[in-house]
Automatic annotation (TrEMBL):
<comment type="similarity">
    <text>Belongs to the UppP family.</text>
</comment>
<dbReference type="GO" id="GO:0005886">
    <property type="term" value="C:plasma membrane"/>
</dbReference>
<dbReference type="GO" id="GO:0071555">
    <property type="term" value="P:cell wall organization"/>
</dbReference>
<keyword id="KW-0573">Peptidoglycan synthesis</keyword>
<keyword id="KW-1003">Cell membrane</keyword>
<feature type="transmembrane region" description="Helical">
    <location>
        <begin position="90"/>
        <end position="108"/>
    </location>
</feature>
<feature type="transmembrane region" description="Helical">
    <location>
        <begin position="222"/>
        <end position="241"/>
    </location>
</feature>
<dbReference type="InterPro" id="IPR003824">
    <property type="entry name" value="UppP"/>
</dbReference>
<feature type="transmembrane region" description="Helical">
    <location>
        <begin position="189"/>
        <end position="210"/>
    </location>
</feature>
<feature type="transmembrane region" description="Helical">
    <location>
        <begin position="6"/>
        <end position="32"/>
    </location>
</feature>
<feature type="transmembrane region" description="Helical">
    <location>
        <begin position="253"/>
        <end position="273"/>
    </location>
</feature>
<dbReference type="GO" id="GO:0050380">
    <property type="term" value="F:undecaprenyl-diphosphatase activity"/>
</dbReference>
<comment type="function">
    <text>Catalyzes the dephosphorylation of undecaprenyl diphosphate (UPP). Confers resistance to bacitracin.</text>
</comment>
<keyword id="KW-0812">Transmembrane</keyword>
<protein>
    <recommendedName>
        <fullName>Undecaprenyl-diphosphatase</fullName>
        <ecNumber>3.6.1.27</ecNumber>
    </recommendedName>
</protein>
<dbReference type="Pfam" id="PF02673">
    <property type="entry name" value="BacA"/>
</dbReference>
<feature type="transmembrane region" description="Helical">
    <location>
        <begin position="149"/>
        <end position="169"/>
    </location>
</feature>
């Protein structure tokens, strides 16, 4: 992997991890479109590190919220009043929202990995993402704020995160749509979507890092150029979160839906031609 490829893929990961256009789809399709013959070992290491980079970005962006949630969660739990404050209650909501995707990831990991080799699957999944966001825009009343997230809303957004295990189904697109279908405002659904991504990204990052250390004996030789991708994804990811939350306050998901329709159609067309 060259320096230019590492930077490009780092930028793509940083932008698309949080924008509702599917980071996994772009990481599959970009090398496919440009015929980049990237070694499997290098690609695996790179994907692990850039995902950790975007994880660091979302933790840093929401560091104050996370600190308040963690402190209040344990404080109220030990006081025997686990749901009495908004921050403590948010902790339980995030746990509930994480459970569906955590279980699905353990049960269907082999199927998910196989899907990452199929541009056709990615293209179809992008069309599904586009349709889902249009449905959410049509149905949602855009009434609820962050404090209006209920346990049933958290569970629904958690179930939507399960579908995002398929490359091409945008995690943020699916979960934000799930919140909007429960009539949350776009920006409220977006904030909860980002917060609920942290536990599942932590678990996935820890597992991938363990596999990387265990299965790649010459890891040190790949790290310098991979570190560049990590830092790029971190910085760009932080900017993407900040931009998207402001964008959602005033704009529709239809713009992202149109992009996913276009990219999905092009993906299927290129696959058919080849």
């Amino acid at each position: 992997m060259s320096v230019i490829q590492a930077v490009i893929l780092g930028v793509i990961q940083g932008v698309t991890e949080f924008l509702p256009i599917s980071s996994s789809a772009h990481l599959v399709l970009l090398p496919y479109f440009f015929n980049w013959q990237l070694p499997v070992k290098e690609t695996f290491i790179f994907n692990v590190l850039v995902q950790v980079g975007t994880l660091v970005a979302v933790i840093f962006y929401f560091r104050k919220d996370l600190a308040a949630i963690l402190v209040d969660f344990f404080k109220q739990l030990f006081a025997g009043r686990p749901f009495v404050t908004p921050s403590a209650r948010m902790g339980w909501l995030l746990i509930l929202a994480t459970i569906p995707a955590g279980l699905a990831g353990l049960l269907f990991s082999d199927l998910v990995e196989a899907a990452f080799t199929s541009p056709l699957v990615v293209g179809i999944a992008l069309l599904v993402t586009a349709a889902l966001m249009l449905l959410a825009e049509r149905v949602s009343q855009n009434l609820g704020d962050s404090h209006d997230v209920t346990f049933s809303t958290a569970l629904m957004m958690g179930v939507m995160q399960v579908f995002a295990l398929v490359p091409g189904i945008s995690r943020s697109g699916a979960t934000i749509s799930g919140g909007m279908l429960r009539h949350l405002r776009r920006e409220a659904a977006g904030k909860f979507s980002f917060l609920m991504s942290i536990p599942i990204m932590l678990a996935a990052g820890a597992l991938s890092t363990y596999k990387m250390v265990k299965e790649v004996p010459d890891l040190a030789s790949f790290l310098p150029i991979m570190a560049l991708g990590f830092l790029t994804a971190l910085v760009v990811g932080y900017i993407a979160i900040r931009w998207l939350l402001k964008f959602l306050a005033k704009h529709s998901l239809a713009y992202f839906s149109a992009y996913c329709f276009l990219l999905g159609g092009v993906s299927i067309l290129v696959w058919a031609v080849r």
